[in-house]
Amino acid sequence: MSNSLTVISPAETAACCSPLTAQPLSMEQAEQVAPVLKALADPVRLRLMSLVASRDGGEACICDLNAAFDLSQPTISHHMKVLHEAGLVDRDKRGVWVYYRVRPQALASLGALIGVPPQ
Asked: CATH number, domain at 88?
């Protein structure tokens, strides 16, 4: 039996929820949003998101991300998998390397959830 969580994409999360300042989240809404926030709650994953999002072209190869950490490549890949499963990044395999892109809608949805107006 699987213990996996049902994770919805950030776009679906934003669609389900008003900004936190507008009205309280229901328990169901909070359970939908929590896995996305949990994915970002790890300092390594938060930094990985920042590294990918701030790269020219908004894309980074896993090979470039490894150099920024004193962690093994499998550990970095695991963190990127968590971000991908949470719907925060897209990935594209090219040869032996995997390239990651932040989903712009994901960041916009998270911003909307906490009440940050779109830019």
From this structure: 1.10.10.10
Burial letters for 14-45: b for 16+ Cβ neighbours within 10 Å, e otherwise?
A: beebeeeeeeebeeebeebbebbeebbeeebb
Query: Does residue 11 fall inside a structural domain?
Result: no
Q: How far is CA 55 from CA 30, 47, 62, in A?
A: 31, 12, 12
Domain of residue 48, residue span: 25-111
Residue 46's pLDDT is 95
Query: Residue 13: which pLDDT band, with cuts at 50, 70 and 90?
Result: low
Report how many domains make up the chain. Answer: 1
| Per-residue model confidence (pLDDT) at position 1 | 43
What is the rounded radius of gyration, in angstroms, for the C-alpha atoms of the chain? 15
